[in-house]
Design brief:
Blueprint: E1 5-10, H1 25-36, E2 42-44, E3 48-54, E4 61-67, H2 75-85, E5 92-98, E6 106-110, H3 118-127, E7 133-138, H4 148-152, H5 158-181, H6 183-195
Parallel strand pairs: 1-4, 1-5, 5-7
Antiparallel strand pairs: 2-3, 3-4, 6-7
Helix pairs in contact: 1-5, 2-3, 5-6
């Protein structure tokens, strides 16, 4: 196992109809990271699309993966990728939308439960452990009585889209920092800065 290698999985649903949904913000973050490492996504035998590159000349190697399955059955592709690349769960980062965090905020954590997120639930079930890092990208709660399931399957609003590039860039920065410096250093930076927004 290469200790300087990380598998970064962006959760979402396949197909152009879902591409701009709040639920697909994890895959939007991976698109930002792929641009940074000058790589493009290619289909992989694990029912995923992957892009690979290093953060800096001697920086960590990132394997960026977007499962080709629907969100709720992300576990199979993630388990396949970890087996193929011989990645330990401690070097897995899952990027996903989070209703319980305000829009334009990030929270970083290691381990714990799925918090009601079905994509994370399926990954935990497939791996048999929750001991991996999560980059939780805040999309906020739906207004009024709109069901959460409908809200996350809608595109970001016009006002949100003005801020979205900054949020995606922040999430990509956080992932790079986790890979380079560790989770604690990234939490110190991002939890403080997002609280002050």
């Amino acid at each position: 196992m290469d200790s300087n290698q990380w598998l970064v999985v962006g959760l979402g649903n396949p197909g152009p109809g879902y591409a701009g949904n709040r639920h697909n913000v994890g895959q939007m973050v991976l698109a930002e990271l792929a641009d940074r490492v000058s790589s493009s996504f290619k289909s992989h035998r694990t029912n995923s699309s992957i892009a690979e590159g290093r953060t800096g000349i001697e920086g960590p190697r990132l394997i960026l993966a977007k499962p080709s399955t629907f969100m709720n059955v992300s576990g199979g592709p993630v388990a396949g990728l970890m087996n193929y690349y011989k990645i330990d769960p401690s070097h897995l980062i899952v990027v996903h939308d989070e209703l319980d965090i305000p829009f334009d905020s990030l929270r970083l954590k290691f381990g714990g439960g799925h918090g009601g997120h079905n994509g994370v639930r399926d990954i935990i079930a497939a791996l048999g452990t929750g001991d991996f890092t999560r980059v939780r990208v805040g999309v906020g709660r739906p207004p009024g009585r709109q069901p959460a399931a409908d809200y996350v399957l809608k595109d970001f609003s016009g006002e949100e889209r003005k801020v979205l590039p900054n949020l995606l860039s922040d999430a990509a920065d956080a992932i790079e920092q986790i890979a380079r410096e560790g989770l604690s250093a990234a939490q110190l930076r991002w939890h403080t800065s997002t609280t002050e927004k």
